[in-house]
Amino acid sequence: MPEGLSVSERYSRLREALAAVVGPRHLLADAADLAPHLVEERGRYRGRSPFLVRPGSTEETAEVVRLCAEARVPIVPQGGNTGLCAGAIPFEAGDEIVVSLGRLKRIRDLDAENFTITVEAGCILAELQQAAAEADRLFPLSLGAQGSCQIGGNLSTNAGGVQVLRYGNMRDLTLGLEVVLPDGQIWDGLRGLRKDNTGYDLKQLFLGAEGTLGIVTAAVLKLFARPREIVTAFVAVPSPQAAVALLGRARSATGETVTSFELIPRLGLEMALRRIDGCSDPLSAPSPWYLLIELYGGGDEGSLAEALESLLERAFEESLITDAAIAQNAQQAADFWRLREGLVEAQKHEGGSIKHDVSVPVSRVPAFIAEATAEVERRIPGVRPVPFGHVGDGNIHFNLSQPEGSEREVFLARWEEINEAVHDIVARLGGSFSAEHGLGRMKVAEAERLKPPIEIEMMRRIKQTFDPHNLMNPGKVVRPDRPEGV
């Protein structure tokens, strides 16, 4: 692009060039069209952008990136915009172009014998799951936003969900990637190989990078055998210590068939019962804690159910559990899951909520919950902690609902203070302050505070190597040496 142009002229010419690539109707500049793409899920961050581009292929994406690189205009890649750390939202300055991947939604290939599926970045997670099921295969990534989140976002945030215990997160589920690099070149790493020991595993650089090193346009993902037997139980336990003890026994007693092991506090259950239609308490007496346990198996019908029932009977005799209900049909299992999913939605109706997505070693989950609860109650009397989530992999969503009768904005104003206090406990226990939501914009400063300086320096060197002009999602994940310049 010619030198000496004013900023407005530069963006005007870029807009014309991009419209020629994607077609005028796929370049959005109207405020109403842009609005949904400029605010993140929780409404904490709102950005600005002169326009949004919707490429329809990898080649179009590459040309969009090349033109923006030539014009030195920064890019914010965006998928379903369901992230929780503002990683897909532009900054308020309004100089970043949003590149939406929603049109890249083809399933390019499904190789049932190789147990792989090749999909484009804009493919909706639920549609991928359905395609796998129709081929008698399972794609196990499962999370609340699966009806709207896109695979590109799942890859870029290294998404987790409720089945990480058994199948791993997106790093574990990915065999190959196709990526548009910051200069517009395309790297075709779409290899469906379990073994490829030919140097650096380059795909890992882009998994969890949140679009800061390039734009993921397609991926080869692992599939698994569909379970022939699914057993779901809702179990009352006296404490997180009992939950962790039961987890170890369940894994051993059922031959590592435990797929989900979700911790639910009584307060969270009560919120779901109070706020979400169709929720009912599965057990007759209240308990301070519950577990939602699900097992997947491929053996004889009923064998897993028998194994779980036997395990729960022994656990009851040893006072590890106080009650349990095993789902007798798919509807009852869905009702159990409705409680787990409902407590997330219910918190929105309980006033302000300060949230944490943290992980610690599974053995330290009870210590974390106890220490973090004591600390936040000391700082905010009457606060209502709702620690829940994936105890099977050590990922606890330590959410705090405002004290009853308090002012929402006064409570939320303490977000950073409470985050810091909770994250300090996590760090002391050898954990992570971001287990599955990524860093985005929200947690960059915490990364600089808590990660060893050498890690931040290595991340900066990688960013500089791939994106020397800092044009790919700048200010997210890792900042330049002088953060004030972002």
UniProtKB/TrEMBL annotation:
Q: Which residues form the FAD-binding PCMH-type domain?
A: 45-226
The record's region (Disordered) falls at 467-486
What InterPro entries has UniProt attached to this entry?
FAD-bd_oxidored_4_C, FAD-bd_PCMH, FAD-bd_PCMH-like_sf, FAD-bd_PCMH_sub1, FAD-bd_PCMH_sub2, FAD-linked_Oxase-like_C, FAD-oxidored/transferase_4, Oxid_FAD_bind_N
PROSITE patterns, alphabetized:
FAD_PCMH (PS51387)
Q: Which GO terms describe its molecular function?
A: catalytic activity; FAD binding
> What does this protein need as cofactor?
FAD
Name the record gives this protein: D2HGDH protein
Q: Name one GO biological process term.
A: respiratory electron transport chain
Q: Give the family from UniProt.
A: Belongs to the FAD-binding oxidoreductase/transferase type 4 family.
Keyword terms, alphabetized: FAD, Flavoprotein
Q: State the encoding gene.
A: D2HGDH
Q: Which Pfam families match?
A: FAD-oxidase_C, FAD_binding_4
